[in-house]
Design a protein that fits this description.
The chain is an alpha/beta fold. The protein has one domain: Uracil-DNA glycosylase-like domain (Uracil-DNA Glycosylase, subunit E, 3-Layer(aba) Sandwich), CATH 3.40.470. The chain contains seven helices and five strands; from the N terminus they run αβααβαβαββαα. The termini are far apart. The protein binds iron/sulfur cluster (SF4).
């Protein structure tokens, strides 16, 4: 089965489809994706950007990670400035955007109510996270995690996928780094970054310079 056909979480299936049916007024003339959002980016990427879950009217509408909302606008502009993305604006799955050396995914592939999946939903979606990690395999050098919730979600799920995570679990910090070890004994750096949410970018908690610095650090760690 492919991730886009998954219906394993009843609450999330109901929510993603309800949002797709009712739509936001501004997008009334559009057909929402309304399904699990797959990872986006090349399969030979050394950096995997990890969010938390798709936004109801962003990726759940467009069908592509971080595409179609303000958070994505901030992220893709920074990815373009730092050389990871082919264009600064990510508006739809058919806009021609290409990523180089970097892929993006989420521990939960369906939009959750209030942007908050349950621990059980995170665990259920761990099977797809495992596939993402296996897809990148030994090339993966950096897990760039956006936000404290994404950090907790990822580090909570990795041990069940056979990864070693430091004990006690490292706390999230913007620019913070930790080393985890994949099932074959290869070290991978987990790099923290404040989430690109409007709450953080409008208040100046996360500035373009701070985001660029983390993305540049990811490139340094990836050796690319
Ligand atoms: S969150 Fe993940 S496991 Fe749950 S229905 Fe969506 S794709 Fe399937």
């Amino acid at each position: 089965m492919v991730v886009t056909a998954c219906r394993a979480c009843p609450r999330l299936v109901a929510w993603r489809e309800e949002v797709a049916a009712t739509r936001r007024a501004a997008f009334r003339d559009q057909t929402y994706w309304g399904r699990p959002v797959p990872g986006f980016g090349p399969e030979d990427a050394r950096v995997l950007v990890v969010g938390l879950a798709p936004a109801a009217h962003g990726a759940n509408r467009t069908g592509r990670m971080f595409t179609g909302d303000r958070s994505g606008d901030v992220l893709f502009a920074a990815l373009h400035r730092t050389g990871w993305a082919s264009q600064p604006l990510s508006t739809s799955a058919g806009d021609g955007m290409r990523l180089t050396g970097l892929r993006m995914t989420a521990p939960v592939h369906c939009a959750p109510p209030a942007n908050m999946p349950t621990p059980q939903e995170r665990t259920t979606c761990g099977a797809w996270l495992r596939r993402e990690l296996e897809l990148l395999g030994p090339r993966l050098r950096v897990l760039l995690v956006l936000g404290g919730f994404g950090w907790q979600a990822l580090l909570s799920e990795l041990p069940a996928l056979g990864w070693s995570v430091p004990v006690p679990r490292p706390a999230f910090r913007h620019g913070g780094e930790a080393t985890v070890v994949d099932p074959l004994g290869r070290p991978v750096t987990v790099l923290g970054c404040y989430h690109v949410s409007q709450q953080n970018t409008f208040t100046g908690r996360l500035t373009p310079d701070m985001l660029d610095a983390v993305l540049s650090r990811a490139r340094e760690l990836a050796g690319s």
